[in-house]
Write a structure and sequence with these properties.
The protein is of the alpha/beta class and 471 residues long. It is 39% helix and 13% strand. The protein binds ligand F0G.
């Protein structure tokens, strides 16, 4: 589907192997459900060619040269080739090698997302340097596209006719688009009534077979896991380690945007915990390859009503123990993207917290709504699940975990127009039936309900003057 000019020699492209995160088994291929055949846990991809070779005290020997890679990736930004124009495939040296990639790559020029300063939010919270990496500026308007381009291409390479996912909405929108581009069929399982119209409409337009199941996201996942064991469909949820590989590139691109100088903190929303696992994996790998010299602390924020990971980590009481289980819960939050009670990738995410020294936080529905409006007031829109990052940052700042002089990057995961109902209800004051006094005042300061007026100039001028007095 594409040819590539600014290619690296085959020898430095990355042969990857599968490995179970629990028992360490290294199967040659993955089962349909991407679970370890020996112990049932998740698989990850690793790169034997990157192993450090320091036996005789010599410099570590890598497959890659950090300076040359940075120059190559920069050079590709001026290329007219499809793969080079993708903010995922541009970094293909850090991704597993897919044979005959020119034939199989499905790309919508994903990635290449902006990094914005959030000046007002920074002042209000008391941090000097606050930025947002907006993954909602991807082709289907969420971060899912970065993982989907890679995993859908691998499905294509495997000759699959059908791909499938369970989703709270964004994965399904993304998968349906990439499947359509790659001439594959897509099956979407979504919880009936619990995803936003914006996301549902995307899956329909991209031609997916969309099944709204009378259950929640976790119920959809169970049925899909059974299905892939019986039918030759390729699973595109984030248990698929190729999704995680593609999603790593958000962190690589971020470091490039920061001149390879890592921030002190990166803050991400936590749902099924694939994204935090991916960003963390990228950070650790980049440090191993000497692309960056230190690790930012990666913190994960959940909604109070969908907080199984928060509870699991807090129950450890800060001790660096590996819990055996995470207690699933029935999740409920208006941030429907992260309405997940049994996150698949919790062990991977826990490893990331421990490797980077990050924190975990939970935020209330009101805190999410206010944070979303504050990001909006900075001229940047996002969907509710993304706004947990700012709400979480406020708490981490209050607890002293984030200090005023430190630099912080929030990962905004989805576009504002994914869920306009939430935004309109907030501004009309219809989102909550009751609110504590302090929050009511805070919300009022941000709410901008539309004003209905008679069609005459005087009325508009009066509205303008009144708004001007209040500004
Ligand atoms: N933000 C948005 C906008 C999401 O859509 C999701 C997940 C997350 C955050 C959480 O990311 O699951 O990797 O921890 N949405 C999935 C979906 C589950 O089906 O679209 P995560």
């Amino acid at each position: 589907m594409s040819t590539t000019r600014t290619s690296t020699p085959r020898s430095v492209q990355t042969a990857a192997r599968l490995r179970c995160i629990a028992c360490g088994a290294t199967p040659d291929s993955a089962a349909q459900d991407f679970r370890c055949i020996a112990c049932g846990d998740l698989l990850e991809l690793f790169f034997p060619g990157w192993t450090l070779d320091q036996q005789d005290g010599a410099e570590p020997r890598h497959h890659t040269d950090a300076t040359a890679l940075k120059a190559l990736w920069l050079e590709r930004r001026t290329s007219r080739e499809e793969l080079d124009q993708s903010g995922v495939w541009r970094f293909r040296e850090l991704l597993p090698y897919i044979p005959n990639i020119e034939e199989h790559a499905i790309t919508l020029r994903e990635g290449n997302t902006p990094l914005y300063h959030l000046a007002r939010c920074a002042r209000a919270i008391g941090v000097e340097n606050l930025r947002a990496k907006h993954q909602g500026m991807n082709p289907t308007a969420s971060f899912k596209d970065t993982g989907m381009t890679f995993a859908a291409s691998s499905a294509h390479q495997g000759g699959f006719k059908w791909v499938a996912c369970a989703s709270t909405g964004n994965t399904s929108a993304s998968m349906a688009a990439y499947a359509a581009r790659g001439n594959m069929h897509s099956l979407v399982l979504i919880p009936d009534g619990k995803i936003s119209w914006g996301k549902l409409s995307q899956a329909l337009d991209y031609g997916a077979l969309t099944c709204q199941l009378r259950t929640d996201f976790d119920g959809c996942v169970s049925i899909l896991n059974e299905l892939v064991r019986q039918k030759p469909v390729y699973l595109l949820n984030s248990v698929n380690p190729y999704r995680i590989e593609g999603q790593k590139t958000a962190a690589i691109e971020l470091m490039e945007q920061l001149g390879w100088e890592p921030p002190d903190h990166i803050i991400v929303p936590g749902g099924n915990l694939g994204n935090s696992s991916a960003i963390g994996k990228a950070l650790v790998e980049m440090r191993e390859l000497k692309l960056i010299s230190r690790l930012p602390k990666l913190s994960i924020i959940q909604a109070e009503g969908a907080n199984p990971f928060y509870r699991c980590v807090r129950e450890l009481g800060g001790k660096k123990l590996e819990p055996k289980t995470l207690k699933p819960m029935t999740a409920d939050t208006m941030a429907t993207a992260i309405r997940i009670g049994n996150p698949a990738s919790w062990k991977k995410a826990l490893r990331v917290l421990q490797a980077t020294g990050g924190e975990v936080e939970q935020v209330s529905e009101i805190e999410i709504a206010i944070a979303k409006a504050e990001i909006g007031a900075d001229g940047i829109g996002c969907e509710p699940a993304s706004a947990v990052t700012l709400a979480g940052l406020k708490k981490l700042r209050r607890s002293g975990f984030v200090k005023s002089g430190e630099s912080v990057v929030l990962i905004l995961t989805g576009h504002q127009l994914k869920d306009p109902d939430f935004t309109i209800q907030f501004h009309r004051g219809e989102l909550f039936s009751e609110m504590p006094e302090a929050e009511t005042a805070e919300a009022k300061r941000l709410q901008r309900a539309p004003v209905v007026l008679d069609a005459n100039l005087g009325a508009v001028i009066a509205a303008l003057d009144s708004a001007d007095r209040d500004s």
